[in-house]
Recover the amino acids of this structure.
């Protein structure tokens, strides 16, 4: 029993990271109908941005003197990484996606694959391909209750993810930018005719999605202890599957999908074999595509000419 | 009718026989004139051409997008290597060991490897091709990763160290210039006949406008799945040739980078053009050699190349036209351009 509870806790914390990344996929897909393959790399670079920010803010000094990294500094690291990733996301949109936005749908897709590949390999050149130990911007404390171990890191991951998702909900539902995003996802051309600045709204979408991915990147680094330039590939794919599972284009769906994928992965690793933890995600994807291609919370949209 | 058809049939048989003789002659010349290093590049170029022409059928002609073809290549490579090793003693028992038995074993192995890869293509294609094209990209990417994980864990296929048969010397080096380019010819002939048939026109119709094609009564899902299976089978054959060029097959040979290589081949050459795919295959084989000392920059450059081509000339070097149409200046163009 405690084993099961343990797996569920681990699954939910991993799943909330997937959910944060899945939000970026689903928002971009909702508006541009583009699978932003580079999103996994934005997540990876966001994680590295956090790594360097922590180094610049002198985490080694704190560790050398035996003191813990103060919480407000950890928040600063998070904000810096999110801002860096937002800038990256906006640049990707401006340099690579905007020139091909009106081209046939295969062209942006190949461009996205190209951007993803470029960032991966540039990251290997810049950061070196070797994995790095992630700085402990939060000092680990363990709590134990009835054989179940909960660390403050897992709790932090869950809480930070929840706060960010709540922030996104407010932004999308209560602000003008959010309203513009929703209008764009219904019909981009009509939104333009209504006087919405589509370029600015798309930029905002990329900025927000990328910032959330960077937060996911830092939480991932804390959770998995090491990071490497290729970590965005598999994690990005899983997050994309999470978005499809929840119904692509649907924001609550991405959160639900992320949590379910995290749970499925942990339970598979715990009860079947860790070898299959990556395979289960794709099995889920195939089943979703066969049984309910619109996803759990998605709506069926008739394709029109 | 029969009188008219017979010479046609005879003509084709003669062309086929001519190709075999010429290839055999070329093989002797290549063996005598070139060093092993050059031969290796030529073999790789041939294998690339098979991969590119096959992938082009689904990504170029049909307008769907697979980014995990390395997975099908792996299925074909492992399939033909494993079945070849099992078959060799049986065939040798029936025909006596020698070049004839080797040739039979090799080609039966390649066909079986191709069929296995085609079967895997059906398995992947049926769920994902019922939906819009971009899901195929994700599913194939996932499939490519999973198949590598499976081969990594398959003990009877050597796991992470790879499969090299029971012989300590590794897999028999069946892959020669003759066989590679004979298969290049076979694959090009099959794909060309498919592309320029009624089926091929339906496939282009799916690329241009899937909804309109469906409205005209084209069975879009069935055709997409068929094209995908053919494309996967070609990758499987290429995998089998690749396996018998090295002394063994390793899961590491079929990383995501190999799928990217294939995409670069067809995009440089021109999506939807068979001769473009041939040029692209040769381009990648040669550039791989030229950039051998700058491996870590190769993929960065390929990635930039993809982005720049997409922005500047999304139809690739030749677009979806064939090279002959450029050489015959001013003559009729066939096939519609990719709409902008």
């Amino acid at each position: 029993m405690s084993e099961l509870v343990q797996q569920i806790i681990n699954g939910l914390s991993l799943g909330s990271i997937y959910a944060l990344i899945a939000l970026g996929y689903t928002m971009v897909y909702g508006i541009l109908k583009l699978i932003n393959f580079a999103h996994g790399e934005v997540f990876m670079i966001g994680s590295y941005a956090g790594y360097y920010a922590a180094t610049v803010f002198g985490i080694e000094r704190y560790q050398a003197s035996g003191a813990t990294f103060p919480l407000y500094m950890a928040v600063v690291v998070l904000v810096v990484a999110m801002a860096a990733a937002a800038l990256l996301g906006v640049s990707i949109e401006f340099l690579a996606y905007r020139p091909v936005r009106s081209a046939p749908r295969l062209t942006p897709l190949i461009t996205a694959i190209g951007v993803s590949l470029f960032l991966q390999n540039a990251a290997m050149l810049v950061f070196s391909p070797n994995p790095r130990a992630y700085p402990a911007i939060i000092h680990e404390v363990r709590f134990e209750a009835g054989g179940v171990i909960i660390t403050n890191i897992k709790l932090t991951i869950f809480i930070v993810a929840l706060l960010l998702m709540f922030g996104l909900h407010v932004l999308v539902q209560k602000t003008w930018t959010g309203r513009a995003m929703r209008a764009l996802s219904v019909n981009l051309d009509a939104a333009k005719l209504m006087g919405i600045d589509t370029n600015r709204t798309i930029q905002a979408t990329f900025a927000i999605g990328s910032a959330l991915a960077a937060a996911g990147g830092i939480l991932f680094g804390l959770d998995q202890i090491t990071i490497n330039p290729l970590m965005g590939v598999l994690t990005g794919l899983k997050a994309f599957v999470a978005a499809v599972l929840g119904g692509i284009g649907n924001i609550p769906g991405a959160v639900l999908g992320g949590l379910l994928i995290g749970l499925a992965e942990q339970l598979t690793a715990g009860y079947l074999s860790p070898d299959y933890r990556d395979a289960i995600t794709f099995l889920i994807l195939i089943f979703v595509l066969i049984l309910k291609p619109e996803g759990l919370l998605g709506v069926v949209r008739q394709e029109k000419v | 009718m029969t009188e008219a058809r017979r010479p046609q049939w005879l003509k084709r048989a003669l062309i086929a026989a001519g190709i075999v003789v010429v290839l055999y002659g070329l093989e002797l010349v290549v063996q005598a004139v070139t060093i092993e290093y050059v031969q290796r590049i030529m073999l790789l170029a041939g294998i690339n051409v098979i991969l590119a022409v096959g992938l082009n059928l689904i990504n170029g002609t049909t307008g769907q997008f697979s980014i995990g073809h390395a997975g099908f290549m792996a299925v074909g490579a492992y399939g033909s290597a494993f079945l070849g090793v099992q078959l060799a003693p049986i065939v040798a028992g029936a025909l006596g060991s020698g070049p004839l038995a080797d040739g039979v074993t090799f080609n039966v192995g390649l066909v079986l490897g191709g069929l296995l890869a085609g079967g895997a293509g059906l398995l992947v294609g049926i769920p994902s091709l019922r939906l819009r094209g971009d899901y195929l990209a994700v599913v194939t990417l996932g499939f490519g990763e999973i198949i590598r994980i499976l081969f990594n864990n398959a003990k009877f296929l050597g796991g992470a160290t790879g499969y090299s048969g029971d012989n300590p010397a590794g897999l028999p080096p069946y892959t020669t210039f003759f066989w590679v380019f004979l298969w290049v010819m076979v694959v090009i002939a099959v794909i060309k006949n498919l592309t320029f048939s009624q089926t091929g026109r339906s496939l282009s119709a799916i690329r241009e406008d899937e909804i309109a094609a469906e409205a005209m009564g084209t069975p879009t899902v069935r055709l997409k799945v068929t094209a995908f299976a053919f494309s996967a089978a070609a990758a499987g054959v290429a995998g089998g040739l690749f396996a018998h060029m090295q002394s063994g097959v390793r899961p590491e040979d079929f990383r995501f980078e190999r799928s990217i290589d294939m995409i670069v081949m067809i995009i440089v050459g021109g999506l939807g053009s068979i001769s473009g795919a041939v040029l692209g295959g040769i381009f990648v084989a040669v550039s791989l050699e030229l950039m051998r000392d700058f491996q870590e920059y190769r993929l960065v450059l390929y990635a930039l190349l993809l982005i720049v081509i997409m922005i500047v000339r999304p139809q690739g070097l030749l677009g979806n036209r064939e090279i002959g149409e450029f050489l015959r200046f001013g003559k009729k163009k066939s096939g519609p351009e990719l709409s902008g």
Remarks:
- The beta strands of chain A are 132-133, 142-145, 148-151, 226-227.
- The mean pLDDT of chain A is 90.
- The CA atoms of residues 173 and 179 of chain A lie 7 Å apart.
- Chain A has one domain: 2-291.
